[in-house]
Amino acid sequence: MSEKTPTTYLGNPNLKRAHVPVGFSEHEVKEYMKCLEDPIYFIEQYVKIVHVDKGLIPFKMWDFQRNMVETFVKDRFVICKMPRQSGKSTTIISYLLHYVLFHENVSVGVLANKGQTARELLGRLQLAYEHLPKWLQQGIVEWNKGNINLENGSKILACATSSSAIRGGTFNIIFLDEFAFVPNTLAEQFFSSVYPTISSGQETKVLIVSTPKGMNMFYKMWVDAEEKRSHYTPIEVHWNNVPGRDDAWRKQTIANTSEDQFRTEFECEFIGSTQTLVLPSKLRTIPWKTPKYEKDNLRVFEEPKPKHIYALTVDTARGQGNDNSAFSVIDITESPYKQVVAYSDPNISPLLFPNLINKIGNEYNTAYVLVEINDIGQQVADILHHDLEYEEVLKLMMKGRSGQMIGGGFTKRVQYGIRTTKSVKAIGCANLKSLIENDILLINDFDTVKELTSFVTSGPSFKAEDGAHDDLTMTLVLFGWLAAQKYFKELTDQDLRLKIYQERIRSMEAEVIPFGFIGDENQSSFVDADGQRWETVDEDVVSRV
Length: 545
Hints:
Helix content is 33%, strand content 21%.
């Protein structure tokens, strides 16, 4: 080689150009072999990181970080749930550096929720690379903010997590950083696009690390791993596994941030809010199931059973890609009641939605259908009853804003479906809370559970947090209202109100007109089916005489 031929890459004295011969001393050969055989030895002896207080220092790993590296080496699929500032990304980056140095012709994808974050991670790896001794380096073929190509044929690509991020490529390792912060729809599209890039290999790997952020795809993958429903190995790190973090540190951190923030970012709880309708402690333990059948946004958990009784509650949207049109089918044959079908779709037309409800309702033994009619839902209820002649669209007599179920027969002031007034929603929410927390209603659908985790206090009522949906939750709120009605007892031959918080429901039912009227609707008093006389006080309130 000519003396004038450069040995560095683009003038960077810390990087060796490709195909530059390197002489090894006997000591260096021994060290190289140790590094080849033991990633932990390589990382602790030769990888340098930037410490927030101390600057550039050798990376001396903590016990849980060594366990992470050992698991990465041993297992193909690993998912890590870890607190903030625990060195999780640095640990994986150090392992990936070892991987590309000591394996030929391998490809690694470093992906994050934002492209800038992915490039910052690659920057950390590049910093560590530049401080390796030359005899440990592979010569550089390409080196920029987005990718590295080495002379041994190995390469690293950094980009944002998206459905098209690495489509068409073949990767040996995909590293997903802070995967919980990738929008849920994008996360699903990403996996459907990316998984084929690794499924063809026998040693390809997926490494996922994140701090939790609600019940999203990361949560689902974590629970599947914990319950051994997938091949992912779960690694969980508690905040006090990090040296220097004790109870005094915890109190200081909470004082400087908030209790909710600490629970999410350091306790690694998936439910950060404490203002949910259903207690967070209960939401965390709901044993949702994998559907037996899933197609076109319809998720079936149990097939219809002969002689079983079902209720189908409906929340309708405009089909314009914003809110979802949704329904839940609930088996009410006996307690505990079970959600057996869930459906949600933001794009289905209100003109087509009744056909699907009609089909599923008839399959489930002509389920009793209750439709929310605040907006476009009235059209759905009318099509079901008048055009499709569905036999069991539940009708209500409205008195004020609370409403009352009626079974059959003739009455002048009825409507098909229910208008979700403040009173109806209050009764439905209170009853739904009791149903779930007392295991009287079992929720099987993950998407429904996810909505419940963001269904939070809003003034005197509840609604979805900003950016979240509550359409499936509202189908359960409607069921909660239905289950509080006397007519529900006739359907199921069970008085649900004896099993749950009776006083709470009874106080709210002071505004609900009782089932079974005797007398003319224009009279100021009437007698219910139990023989109790009631007197109309005003438009919305009735009281016992």
